[in-house]
Write a structure and sequence with these properties.
Mean pLDDT: 76
Strand content: 5-15%
Number of domains: 2
CATH architecture of the largest domain: Orthogonal Bundle
Radius of gyration: 36 Å
CATH superfamily of the largest domain: Transferase(Phosphotransferase) domain 1
CATH class of the largest domain: Mainly Alpha
Shape: globular
CATH topology of the largest domain: Transferase(Phosphotransferase), domain 1
Largest sheet: 6 strands, antiparallel
Strand order of the largest sheet: 1-2-3-4-6-5
Number of helices: 20
Number of strands: 12
Low-confidence stretches: 16-24, 26-33, 489-547, 557-587, 589-608
Length: 620
Amino acid sequence: MCNDNGAQRRLSINMIKHAELAKPNGEDSPFYSTVIEPQRQPPPSKVTRAFRKVMVGERSTHHAKKPVSRSLSVVYAMTAKLTETYKRTDPQFQYSTRTNPRRALTKPSKPAKNDGFDNEDHDYILRVNDILGEEDHRHVNFNIYRVIDLLGQGTFGQVVKCERISTGELFSIKVIKNKPAYRTQSRMEVEILKKLNHTSDPDDRHHILRLFHTFDHKNHLCLVFELLSVNLYELLKQNNFKGLSADLVRVITTQLLDTLVVLKEAKIIHCDLKPENILLTSVDSPTIKVVDFGSACHEANRMYTYIQSRFYRSPEVLLNMKYTAAIDMWSLGCIVAELYLGLPLFPGRSEYNQLRRIVDMLGVPPTDILEKGKNTPRFFHRVTEHGKPEYKLKSREQFGQEQQRPEPRGKKYFAHTTLDDIILHYANGSTAARNEQETQRDLQTRHALVDFLKGLLHLNPLRRWTPQQARNHPFIVGNGFSGSLDPSGRMKADKAPPQPDNPHAEPARPLKPTTVMSDHQTSRTPPPSCADEQQKPPPGLVSDPCPQLIQTIQQKEEKRTWQRIGRAPSPHPLRLKHRRTRSQANILGNPLPDTTSTIPTYEASEPPNECQKEHKHNSK
């Protein structure tokens, strides 16, 4: 230790002596004994800034940072091929993308039942990239699906967007809750859809959802459907809850009537028609499909009394009467009015409020109908005047006292009360920049729509129009309207109607003779099996149907409209100023609203978003 310290001390002394003898500018020594002061630097020269001519498309590189080579990036060098580095250092290291944490689609996602596969609500906990199907023979099984995203969640289960691994085709799969009651009802849905797809509509021409395949996965029944686009409620929402054009409403209504004709021939009641259950097939055309047959039943085997979503619930269901396929026609009338107005016609907050809105607009149901309802004493007073029994709806305060809970006051969304005034005075912007001939045509269309809705919304289900009768109406066929029609005297249900003047109408099909089925008979027949490979591939999912859909409908329908009145269309028919963009108006096929109109569509204190909130809580 001492020898080492002495050697270091002698080396330091020699270095200092060498530094003292060296010249300041000597090139033979790396050390200097004198301290060199920092030299004064000249002031920096001023840089003259000016504009420089740049060619179109030229990118300035004056301030551009030079890209850092990946070989010099520490972050890239430490993260690239990290799994390969681990495998080289540790032969026992194993990694697979399937073990990555996946985003949960089901809420709540906490395991609670079914060996940890289900949550507390008996829903299967779905995650992105989950595999649905028989996992054992995956290399040879055709029906294996990969979960992509969640499309919806409801009472019976969840609907997810999936990809068939073997072909790459896209489908929507409905995963039923793991409960016996839901499985039983879903089996009924499968039976009805197979009958409709293979017997009533084998060529897929009548706008009924196609069922491709069913299987079981972790004690859950899974139904594989075609993948469709957005529903009509979302379409209205994208249009800021403004009504659609009469031409577009006619196109959609014609397709719905075609579906209801098939259902009536098959003696099937849908029981849950609403805008959410009517989906567009694609963005290229306004073709629709009726979905969600989970509540459907046969006319001879009505299983439930509490059916239909509240906004579209018929009076006979509210009164707990024996119902028929006429309840679907009531729902259709509510849907048609909502498509034209943009808001629900009867947005009831409760069953009493729903019935109150119906009575205020259409009057009290006939006495013979009320006497058949089991719930009539709950909502009505029975009084005797001039020796005849009559019924009066109870007041909101009295009904609340009898039910021992306050009845909420319903909000008013329209400035008028009667159906005629609501339709005839609705300001949809179609009154701007039109001549007298166009104004008369629009007024005639409105009168035809009012008469059409009155036939669908008849309080007596025995006098309510059938789908065969309704599709003969001038509002559907496009003929001139000269006055109210009585379909029982002027329309025959067994006669094929003339086709409406629009490019989307289906060709007429002869109606099969039907026989009345008693309550003791049954229409259940075992349908043929569903062949997956023979079905055509479903259309792809499109999140936004607006641009192509509106442009297509507007061009075709407007061209035919101008041809009927003998005038060429204007090159710019949508030049009205409004908060919405012109492209949004083109999407929905209707002109922009006339902001100068003084006719309100609803009270200023009740904006449409309030009705939107209630729409979400519309219970079944």
